[in-house]
Amino acid sequence: MNDITIFIKPLLLTIILEGIVSYIMGLRSLKEQILVALANIITNPLLVYVSLFLMYHKGIQTGTVLTYLVLEPLVILVECLIYRSCLKNRNCFTLSLTLNFISIIGGLLWQMLF
């Protein structure tokens, strides 16, 4: 597998899933959709890189546990702060938590199916 593919596939899946769910949650303007995409462009490749690094150096099980218990909460926090800086009258923590939960479930389903 090409090195760039390791980063592009999860990023695209995340942008698609979070774009759909954020639209359902009321983020319908182009500006809001771009914000969701940009938040993921910032956090997703870094998450994938550090997660793969941890799995390589700590083992798959330990790396996976660290990803879900440490890295994902950090992503939720960072994206919440990004959303809070641009979106008004929104519960940005709930938004970030919901979108990332959908991404995690989508990623796990993708791995199981493919």
Describe the 3D structure.
With 114 residues, the protein is an all-alpha fold. It has one domain. It contains 4 helices and no strands. The chain has helices at residues 3-24, 30-58, 60-86, 92-113. The longest helix has 29 residues, at 30-58. The two termini are 14 Å apart. The relative contact order is 0.14. The model has no long low-confidence stretch (mean pLDDT 95).
Q: Tell me the number of helical segments per DSSP (H or I, 4 or more residues long).
A: 4
Could you tell me how far the N terminus lies from the C terminus, measured between alpha carbons in angstroms?
Answer: 14 Å
Count the E strands.
0
Percentage of residues in helical conformation: over 70%
Counted up, domains total 1
Low-confidence stretches: none
The major pleated sheet works out as: none
